[in-house]
Amino acid sequence: MKTGVWRLFLALSAVLMIALAPAGLLTDALASLCAGQCRFAEVEGYWWRGSADIYLGTNSGDRAWSRLGQVRWQPEGLGWQLTLGSGSARLAAEINGLHLAIDNIRLPAGGLLGHFGHGLPQDGWGGDLTARATELVMPWNFSPASGRGEIVWSQARTSLLENYPLGDYRLAWSMSADGGGRGHLSSAQGPLSVTGELTLHPFGFIGQADLAPAAGPLRKYLKLIGQPDGENRYRITLPTAPDVQ
Fold it and tell me: pTM here?
């Protein structure tokens, strides 16, 4: 009898300790996962329901930290709901795997594009990246994820193009369970309009770029990757891209 009571006491104590674990345990783990590129401050609550201010760092030698805002998380059904500014994300466990839904989460382009590698510069990225109507399914058997969504790069600029203001771009993407991925790139506004089709595996792009007359300084860069196709228009074909119908 005493043994049963003691085991029950230990089980209840363990549950209580887990339930009351501070939010700092979660934010410390997340900071480790992002390899020191993010920080959390003003952490409040518990690991399962709480809030914190989140900061994103740059890769430059003189590290700068940009406050993204306050992030809040709380349980919802068999998952968690997260809010950041006017955006939200939801991670839920379902029969076929983990489901991640993201809408209107906005982050500075410099805090993301500088960490991609693949020969891209670590600094010199301007504007914001916003994930919209994004849905991702990660199967329990660890097979490739599938999903779709939109990424908007607003007020885009890059040191690769002399920090010239480029405008706004939208990438509508989809990813299939067989590992293939496709995307459609379009421009909302700006002096450099780019439209075309993108493939991820293997990487390739076929499209066109239209240059506004006032954006003459960009012409020398377009000549490096595209072929003239009329006044201020260039056809762009990057290696291994399939034909666009």
Answer: 0.80
